[in-house]
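STRUCTURE:
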């Protein structure tokens, strides 16, 4: 084990402590282990770092051989946003599916099982759940990541999710404060702006965050959004009025404030990641998330040095940096204590999916979340291999394009020989030609946001009235087809539940 150098510079160590960087590879690079030895207290994991539960457990063990209290964080929302199962699709439906069922005990059970899997692999901080109230159906980045458009519904399921994760020793990081739901811009690409009054913010956006804080969420993630009623000049991540005035002082949150990814264009394009990180810590943030895109040693050193220099020039009070580092260490101590208790209670527990009680809870939840609407004529379940036409929108950055979605693989399991094609326009003739005599299953995602998808569905249903439509995004458009199946998300288990409905094996 590497130990901290005796007499090492406290300021430099504190600057490293507040960083949550990513890296490339399925084992820890030497530079990362070296920086952990020098004081780096957190590491962020993404899909590129994970191939299996066993490999992930070995990776987190490698990190903790350098420092046994290192925080290992991950962006594992379940549903559309998964890192644990980035190549397969998630075993758990996302927030929109859970909110559509509206059974808080189900949400708590899903979060608990997801937390168990993370804990068994050595992950102890999850950048989830999303507590955003998706009040704008045109939102390009939240959508099915939200429990829904109703603040009270979002609040009660956020609390259940926090309880489920933290009950098994995984710290929840409730996001994206103070609420990313009423935007029509993706903050990965540009700076979203929300121009509503304070009364609306308190009655809508802030309701789930108040509930999460009361429930004891260990961390809150800030959003790169401009809320003119709170701060007309700086995005929330860089705003003292929002992070210190609102979150700390008014809402009374005492846990860890984590920024959203600092390389996102909403901050990076205007301030740059170095100045942005200094402003974020000065505003009240405690941990700088970086690594979704920038994931090398140079980035860590640039941010470390920017923070140190800001203290030395007087731009950043040393006490503020020290306070931020202390909050990181406090959370690390909490997670370390839970890991120790977990190891004592389950000695030699296998790191294998599906071994814990309730391991099928994700599929149970996905089946409950289905909304099936039958057309005017009787529906005959499919008994021979169909043709699946997937109408594919551009994936948002948070979801990524690595994770498979749809129903073709699950239908092929039930009806071997199923064929599939992907379409990015409304050409009905191409689908009909490819399908031939096969029945058609048309799969869409947020058809209400993509008029070309609606045109394609109308054309298919007119030409082939027995077409089945599966909506795997927000269920906002009018049902079409002989059978319309709303899955409320595109997780693998949602696809399986939809396939079962197509062949008539579920109600």
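SEQUENCE:
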């Amino acid at each position: 084990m590497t130990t901290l150098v005796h007499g090492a510079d406290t300021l430099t160590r504190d600057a490293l402590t507040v960083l949550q960087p990513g890296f490339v590879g399925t084992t820890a690079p030497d530079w990362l282990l070296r920086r952990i030895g020098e004081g780096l207290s957190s590491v962020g994991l993404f899909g590129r770092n994970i191939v299996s539960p066993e490999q992930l457990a070995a990776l987190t063990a490698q990190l903790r051989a350098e420092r046994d209290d290192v925080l290992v964080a991950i962006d594992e929302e379940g549903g559309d946003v998964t890192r644990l199962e980035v190549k397969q699709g998630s075993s758990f439906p996302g927030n929109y599916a859970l909110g559509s069922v509206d059974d808080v005990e189900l949400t708590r059970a899903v979060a608990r099982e997801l937390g168990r899997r993370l804990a068994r692999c050595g992950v102890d901080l999850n950048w989830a759940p999303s507590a955003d109230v998706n009040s704008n159906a045109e939102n390009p980045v939240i959508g099915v990541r939200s429990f829904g458009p109703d603040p009270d519904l979002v609040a009660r399921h956020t609390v259940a999710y926090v309880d489920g994760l933290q009950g098994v020793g995984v710290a929840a990081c409730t996001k994206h404060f103070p609420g990313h739901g009423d935007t029509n811009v993706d903050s990965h690409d540009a700076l979203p702006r929300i121009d509503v009054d304070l009364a609306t913010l308190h009655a809508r956006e802030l309701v789930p965050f108040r509930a999460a804080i009361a429930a004891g969420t260990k961390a809150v993630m800030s959003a790169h959004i401009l809320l003119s009623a709170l701060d007309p000049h700086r995005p929330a991540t860089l705003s003292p009025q929002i992070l210190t005035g609102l979150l700390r002082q008014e809402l009374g949150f005492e846990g860890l404030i984590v920024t959203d990814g600092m390389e996102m264009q909403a901050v990076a394009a205007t301030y740059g990641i170095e100045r942005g990180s200094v402003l974020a810590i000065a505003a009240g943030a405690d941990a700088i998330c970086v690594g979704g895109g920038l994931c090398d040693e140079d980035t860590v050193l640039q941010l470390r040095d920017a923070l140190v220099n800001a203290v030395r020039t007087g731009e950043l009070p040393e006490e503020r940096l020290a306070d931020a580092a202390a909050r990181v260490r406090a959370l690390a101590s909490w997670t370390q204590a839970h890991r120790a208790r977990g190891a004592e209670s389950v000695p030699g527990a296998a790191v294998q999916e599906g071994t814990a009680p309730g391991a099928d809870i994700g599929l149970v939840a996905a089946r409950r979340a289905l909304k099936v609407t039958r057309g005017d004529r009787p529906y005959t379940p499919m008994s021979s291999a169909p043709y699946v036409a997937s109408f594919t929108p551009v994936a948002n950055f948070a979801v990524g394009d690595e994770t498979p979605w749809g129903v073709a693989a699950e239908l092929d399991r039930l009806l071997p020989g199923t064929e599939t094609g992907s379409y990015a326009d409304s050409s009905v003739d191409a689908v009909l030609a490819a399908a031939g005599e096969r029945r058609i299953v048309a799969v869409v995602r947020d058809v209400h946001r993509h008029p070309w998808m609606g045109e394609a569905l109308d054309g298919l249903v007119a030409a082939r009235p027995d077409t089945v439509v599966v909506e795997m995004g927000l269920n906002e458009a009018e049902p079409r087809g002989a059978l319309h199946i709303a899955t409320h998300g595109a997780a693998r288990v949602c696809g399986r539940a939809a396939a079962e409905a197509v062949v008539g094996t579920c109600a």
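REMARK: The radius of gyration is 23 Å.
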